[in-house]
Amino acid sequence: MSVWVLALTGGGLWFWHNHQHSTNQLSEASVSDSGNQTAATQSGQQSNTISPVQTPTTNPTIPATGSGSGGNVAGDSTKSSASDVSKLLDPKTFAQYDKYKSDQNAYFIELAQGNGAALGNNQKAAVFYKGWLTNGTLFDESKAGSDGQLQPFVFTEGAHQVITGWEQALAGMKVGGVRLVIVPPSVGYGATGQGSIPPNAVLVFQVQLAAVQ
């Protein structure tokens, strides 16, 4: 699996390429199957609209720039301010990601580093998410249950239950983490689109990993 990672630096966005897979691990939190339908799936299901995913309340850790083109980012991590995260999550800024329209891999920006188990191949992942088009239109988000609580969307990493861009960008993510995921059409919905997603659309997601199993 090929993953490209974007990091926030003083000079803008910087990315690196990672070919590694995480080993299977079991989190303390259990994962139950979810009946949620999502625009992140490849099966043409309709999405459910719900209350928004919460923004991290603590300052996230964003990797510092490193040398080389592969492996882990070198150097110490730097703290990002809450205003930095707010800017990254501002839909009015998402048009900048159209520059990745012809790319063949997904990207992600680490908004908050998780401290739980890492998501590996063939593991179930429970996530909360929101999805936008690059024009700022929100096309999908996690569903709230009858109790008003967000219900996680559950899928199996590597089982092709979600678009390829999700499988690429969420591999290795740790429980408790939050990522901004940028999905070019080649690993999203391609030249045909789906539902409210137009053809050749770059998609932007905010994804929180709640549990893995």
Q: Give the CATH topology.
A: Chitinase A, domain 3
| Secondary-structure content class | mainly beta
Radius of gyration: 16 Å
Into which percentage range does the β-strand content fall? 25-35%
Count the DSSP helices.
2
- Main beta sheet strand tally, sense and closure: 8 strands, mixed
Helix content: under 10%
Order of helices and strands: EEEEHEEEEEEHEE
Mean pLDDT: 72
* Form type: globular
- Total tally of structural domains: 1
CATH architecture: Roll
Number of strands: 12
Class, according to the CATH hierarchy?
Alpha Beta
Distance between the termini: 20 Å
Which residue ranges are poorly predicted, with pLDDT under 50 across at least 5 consecutive positions?
7-79
Entry keywords:
about 210 residues; Chitinase A, domain 3; two-stranded antiparallel ribbon
Describe it for me?
This protein has 213 residues and is mainly beta. It has 2 helices and 12 strands. Strands 1, 2, 5, 6, 7, 10, 11 and 12 form an 8-stranded mixed beta sheet that branches. The chain has a two-stranded antiparallel ribbon with strand order 3-4. Strands 8-9 form a two-stranded antiparallel ribbon. The longest helix has 7 residues, at 82-88. Mean pLDDT is 72; it is low at 7-79.
